[in-house]
Amino acid sequence: MSERRAAPALAVEEIRASYGPVQVLFGAGLVVEKGEMVALMGPNGVGKSTLLRVIGGLMRPDSGTVRIGGIDATSWSPRKRVEAGLSQVVGQSAFGSLSVVDNLTMHGYANADKKWVRESVEAALMIFPRLNARRNQPAATLSGGERQMLALAKAIVNDPELLVIDEFSLGLAPVVVGGLMELVRRLNERGTSVLLVEQSVNVALSLVHRAYVMEKGEIIAEESAAVLAADPERIRTLMLGGHVAEAG
Ligand SMILES: Nc1ncnc2c1ncn2[C@@H]1O[C@H](COP(=O)(O)OP(=O)(O)OP(=O)(O)O)[C@@H](O)[C@H]1O
Question: Which of 15, 45, 98, 176: disulfide with 64, CB 3.0–4.6 Å?
Fold first, then answer.
C-alpha cells in the first residue's frame, strides 16, 4: 500500500520507438513524481511529441516501459490510461460542429458517473469565463486561444492525477499563455502532477519544478528549473541541440 503511494505519477524507461523503418526514440526515459510539474524541452523534431504519444498509448514503442502510478501500463489502451488518471492535452483537437459543452461532456466518456461529469464540465467552464460565454457555440468557431482553453478544460473534466500537455504556448498571445499557465499551476496545487512539452524555455522554466532536455530521441540533461533558469548559456547550448556530456 505504502509502496503504491510512494510510486511516481509517471515513470518512463528506455523507450525506443519508430515510424516504419525510421527510429525516432533511442532509450528515452523520465520520471514525474506525485505532485510534481516537469517539462520536457528540446529543439524541433527530436521526439518530444512521439514520447507523449507513447505515454498516452497512441503509439506502441519497440521496447521500453511506461508506468502510471507504479503500474506497468505499456500495453494498456489509451482509454485504460485515462481511467488510471492520465489526461492528455494534445493540440487543439475538438469536434468542430459540436458545442463547447458537448465537447467537454463527450470527453468524460470514461467516467460512468454522468452527474459527476456534468458537474465537472460546469466547474471547468467556471475556470474559463471566456469559454463559458461561448458554451453553446460550435468549437470550430473558437479562436486559437479559446481552443487551447477548451483542450485544457477537456483534460480537467477527467479530474486527472497526471496531466500531460503538448505545447500550449504555440501560436498564442503571451497574455493567453499566462492565463493557461496560472490554471495549470492551480491544478498542480490541487495535487495534479504535470508533464509539459514546451519549446518556449521561458514558459517551461517559469512553471515547472524540474526539466528534461531531449536531443535526437534521448534525454541529454535533467535539472531543477531554478538551476537551469540561472544558467542561460547552458540552456542555449542545450536548446540548440549542442551535445552536453553529463546527463542527470
Ligand atoms: N507520423 C509520423 N510519421 C513519420 N515520421 C514522423 C511522424 N511523426 C513524427 N515523425 C518524425 O519523428 C521525428 C520526431 O518528431 P516529434 O514530433 O516527436 O518531435 P518533436 O520533438 O515533438 O518536434 P517539435 O518540437 O517540432 O514538435 C521527426 O523527425 C518527425 O519528422
Answer: 15
pLDDT at position 1: 46
Query: Alpha carbon 113 to chain centroid distance?
Result: 25
pLDDT bracket for residue 141 (50, 70, 90): very high
Which distant-in-sequence residues (6+ apart) come within 8 Å of 86 by Cβ? 10, 55, 56, 68, 160, 161, 162, 164
CA of 176 to the centre of ligand 1 (A): 26
What is this structure's pTM?
0.86
Ligand 1: distance of its center to the CA of 42 in Å? Answer: 12
Ligand 1 pocket mutation, candidates 49, 59, 219, criterion most atoms within 8 A of CB? 49
Q: Is 103 touching ligand 1 by the criterion CB < 6 Å?
A: no
Query: 199 CB less than 6 Å from ligand 1?
Result: yes
* Cell numbers representing residue 109 in the block: 466518456
169 lines ligand 1 (CB under 6 A): no
Sorted by where each starts, the structural domains of the chain and their CATH numbers stand as: 1-85+161-168+192-248 (3.40.50.300)
Ligand 1 mean position, distance from CA 15 (Å): 15
Alpha-carbon span 124 to 156, nearest angstrom: 7
CA of 115 to the centre of ligand 1 (A): 39
**Is 132 strand, coil or helix?**
helix
Rounded to two decimals, the ipTM of the complex is 0.96
